[in-house]
Amino acid sequence: MQAETIDAFHRGRFFLLQPKGRGHRSGMDAMLLASLVAAEHPVRVADLGAGAGAAGLAVAARLEAAEVTLVERSPDMLDYARRTLALPENAALAPRLHLIAADVTLTGQARRAAGLMEDVFDHVIMNPPFNDGRDRLTPDALKAEAHALQKGLFEAWIRTAGAIMKPGGQLSLIARPESLMEIMAACGQRFGGVEITLIHPREGESAIRLLLTAIKGSRARPQFRSPLFMHGAEGHAFLPLVDDLNNGRQAYYRLASRRSR
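The structure corresponding to this sequence follows.
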């Protein structure tokens, strides 16, 4: 039998069944991605490339009126997602989560046949594979599939996000900073009002991730937000804002939303 673990997130508000020693194991990236979904009313959210469902579950745990669809193509990870939703600890959340077995890169009729229809979701979130395809790949095939960035991936994933999202809906993603130009090109005429936040381990250290949100059909100009620093000058404890985002105590609101609050 394959080794696996049951891991608590958001201080025990939900749990995730994950492979141990192979495949992708979710952590802080998924929690920060989930924090980008902010809503005061019922919303439908799609988590593309959801894996075992960490980001989607984090959204559902924080937003009681959110309906979340987990989209994943890997049979292995779909099985983990199914068994995650079946955990007794997740019983309160499971009715608001749904699974779709589909390749995010599908288009047109093939995408619709897989269950991804046009103009359905208020939010689409994604944590695409982030390792450059030229990098040395892990011998773990399941992990390589989750981590290896292939040419044209952002174009394909963001195209699908634009198709399945309602006009005015929000795209949210987390990626490596070096992917920014590809992401912006993929947003193209589909999304505007792009807001970018660079995440740094500490002041004076280079960014290791970026958070990006954008609005379908918006023509607003892009904005770089204040950077997020994970740690103070000493120690490895998260700074208060990052800790709140990581544990589902706070959403990371878009600038326009913060001004209107």
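Confidence is low (pLDDT under 50) at residues 144-148.
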